[in-house]
Every structure is written in structure tokens, then in C-alpha cells.
Write a structure and sequence with these properties.
The protein has 239 residues and is of the alpha/beta class. The chain is 33% helix and 26% strand. The strands form two sheets. It has a nine-stranded mixed β-sheet. Strands 1-3-2 form a three-stranded mixed β-sheet. The longest helix has 25 residues. It is elongated and about 95 Å long. About 5% of the residues have low confidence.
Length: 239
């Protein structure tokens, strides 16, 4: 004789599996609705929501009126990740059939001139300019695109320091001795950084010099500031 308890359990299990399968089938067969694009920083700078939507619509022409289970969300993410201005894309579909897209944009930290202008992003990779937005980042001269790794530590140092980020507007390499010169916003003097080394010490010394010269109202007296000599800041006065 069968135990009624086991029979009841088996029937409940079959009923639950049936309901789950039915709900999953209904959800998968739901028509696609809107495409909703959001940006991680809430700002569409280098790529717009319209651009993202058009990329998806062009790829989904045969699928927009189809069922959700036909969509390859991972493939759509890969499509968006190939865009020059997109760092990463996450795509999901909700129970109402809407397609949600979360975009992280690439972040430029400098603009390099090596015969043509390009950005360098925060991963140390080349990034084309955008016709949507122009980033306020330092200009880099004298370095080829193959030398980005050499200047990348300096660019990150400037980008991650609020004082330096507002202060430094250009970075130039002297081709003769391979030293670095920095141009300063709203000041006549330039900074001779020397080699890209001991950056913490050099910039700590520079900040101390700058604050003292500013307090004494002497910033306009200098032609150049040399940070190459350890703890010393060697200045050249205007003639």
C-alpha cells in the first residue's frame, strides 16, 4: 500500500514544477518593450542614450517583435563593449519585456598629440576624440602612442590629485635629454620635472613652494621651477 504522505508530496512537487514551467514560458514569450539606457555617472558625455539605443535597434531589427528567449544578452553586451567610448555595458530584460542597459563610459585622463590627437583613458589605452564632448584634460606632446606606458604613471598622479588636476595643463618631453616640462594654468612659469620618478617627493615640494609663493604674492616673479634636485626647488626669476 502506498503511503498517502508520499503521494501527496509527489503531486505537490509536480504542481509546483508545472506552475514554474508555465510562468517561465509566459515570461519568455513576452514581447519586448522599451529600451531604457542609464549611465553609471548619470551623465551621457561621450556616447548618448540615443546612440546606444540605435546600436541595439540595428542589431535587433529581427528580434524587437520576437520573444525574449530569442535574445542573446551577452552578445548584445559584447556589441556595445566594442564601441570606442564604452568601457562596459550590462543588459537585462525585466518581467514587462523592457530591455535595461547600464553603461560605463571610458574616462580620458589626457589628450596626446602624436601627429593626430587622441585621448589616453584611465586604463592607459588610446581613445578617440568625441564629437559629443571635449574633456578638460592635460595635453601631452613629444610622446608617441607607443610610449604611453612611460607617461601613464605621471598622468594617473595628476588625475588623482585635485590640486594637480586643476593646475597642470600640458606635459612636454624634451627629445634631447628625455626630461619632462609641465605647463601651469594661469601662470607664466613652467615646471622642469626631470625624469618620471620620485613623483610624490617632487609634487610635495612643488605644492609647498607654490603655496608659499602665492602667500608672498611672488608667483609672477618666476620664469621656471626646477624639481629635479631632490628636496630642493630651484627657481629662475624673470629678467
Amino acid at each position: 500500500m502506498f503511503n498517502l504522505k508520499y503521494i501527496r508530496f509527489a503531486l505537490i512537487l509536480l504542481l509546483m514544477l508545472g506552475l514554474f514551467g508555465f510562468a517561465n514560458s509566459v515570461n519568455n514569450q513576452r514581447k519586448l518593450g522599451d529600451i531604457r539606457v542609464n549611465f553609471n555617472n548619470n551623465t551621457a558625455l561621450f556616447v548618448t542614450a540615443e546612440t546606444v539605443e540605435n546600436l541595439l535597434i540595428d542589431n535587433l531589427k529581427d528580434s524587437l517583435n520576437s520573444y525574449k528567449y530569442m535574445l542573446d544578452l551577452e552578445g548584445l553586451e559584447h556589441l556595445l563593449n566594442k564601441h570606442d567610448m564604452i568601457k562596459s555595458a550590462d543588459i537585462f530584460s525585466d518581467i514587462k519585456g523592457n530591455l535595461g542597459v547600464i553603461i560605463s563610459q571610458r574616462q580620458p585622463i589626457a589628450r596626446i598629440f602624436d601627429g593626430d590627437f587622441n585621448y589616453i583613458d584611465d586604463q592607459g589605452l588610446l581613445m578617440p576624440l568625441s564629437n559629443q564632448f571635449s574633456a578638460r584634460v592635460p595635453l601631452v606632446y613629444g610622446f608617441s602612442s607607443e610610449e604611453i606606458s612611460a607617461i601613464y604613471p605621471l598622468l594617473l598622479k595628476i588625475r588623482n590629485d585635485e590640486f594637480l588636476k586643476k593646475h597642470i595643463i600640458a606635459i612636454r618631453k624634451n627629445s634631447k635629454n628625455q626630461t619632462i616640462k609641465l605647463n601651469v594654468r594661469n601662470q607664466d612659469f613652467s615646471i622642469n620635472l626631470g625624469k618620471i620618478e620620485a613623483l610624490d617627493l617632487k609634487f610635495t615640494n612643488y605644492k609647498a613652494f607654490y603655496l608659499k609663493a602665492k602667500q608672498e604674492q611672488k608667483l609672477n616673479d618666476y620664469k621656471s621651477v626646477n624639481l629635479q634636485f631632490g628636496n630642493q626647488v630651484v627657481c629662475t626669476f624673470k629678467q
